[in-house]
Amino acid sequence: MSEPLLDQIREAKPAASPELRSRIRALGAEAPSARRSRLASLHLRPGRALALAGSAAVVAALGAGLVKGLTSEPQSHLGATGAGQGTTGLDQSVSSPTGAPESATKEPLAPTGNLGAPATADALAPTPGRLQRFQAEMRLRVADVEELSGATKRAMQIAQSLRGYVVSVQYDAPAQGVGGAQIVLRVPTARVQTALTQLSALGTILGQSRDALRRAGSAFGPPGMGDAGPAQAFARRSATASEMPAPAASPGTAGEEPDEIDRLFRGG
Amino acid sequence: MTLPARRTPIRSVSFAAAAAEHLDDVYGYLVYLTRDRTLAEDLAAETFEKALKLWKRYDPRRASARTWLCQIARTTALDWFRAEERRRRREESVARPDVIEMAASEGLSPELEAALASLSAGEREVIALRVLLELDGEEAARVLGISPTAVSTRLSRALTKLEERMAVHV
């Protein structure tokens, strides 16, 4: 092909409009804050609370059990609208902090003094104008039903010892067959790592995942849906060990059918 | 045919810098791909929004920012056209779909523009990447998800076809 034609194509390269350019520039201006908030996850965040949800299951026939933990850290005012849902058995034997769900919507769970303390590796730092949510899931196996009972109690005690509280517990330990428990806990952001460390000592770790989410705006979920909603939904979904969240897909097109572009684009 | 490659040196760049530097590349690529400047603008904006979210995963050692952005642009365009295809199927029984036409390109002769418009999207795409953006064969292959040899073959056929169409129009 003649070089002049190629030159004509190169020289007539479409240029983005000023509107698009300013739009992308504005987008680029957001990038530093996104990075900052990512790095800020290493610092304490005053006024934030963290929800810790856990579940446990025991396969009595095998003499084994599972304990799951899920932590989430929504904006404190989102609170635990679902707190107390499904609380049975052991949940009642361990008293929750007074007015925990409501108070959690107004005040940080961790003492102010601690929030001003040097940062710990697991806390989230504030990002102006953005909400942050931190959640983690831990699945543990314990030896038998008795250990499951003890582990469940201990998990709730851990939450309380860390100035958190129990959002919900579902405990099921039948004489035969599969038993289990789901524990939803909330602990201060600054003590997430401690909570995870202590929870992990309750049994054999089968799986663990952590996730930090940030969103602009005033709420994470649908209106009226507090953090306990997504937390419990997540706990239900992850009740099956094989249903752990999949890693995000690569942005690339390696798996695309190259010729699909012609099929999709009309006029091609 | 030997086309010069404009390689971006490997360096750590900020998202804002990469976006500013490669906006025209991404937009130009999308214009050639879609033949619709308005749509290309929307897809370019969406591309950079996605890129911002994924920026922390960008590894300059694996691909230049331009190649990476073009990959995202392609995925974005494909997603859009997949959705559009579904919508069109639903609506075809009700109304005839609009035909997307490439807006007049400044600087292109009417003959060349008509010849480009007569090419397939895949052919325009490889011309956009190799000629317009001056990616080398390896980079273009990465964007298209095919081998460099296939890129070379596709480009050769596209340019031959373009030349033939030009001859018809002239």
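qc> The two ends of chain A are 21 Å apart (CA to CA).
qc> done
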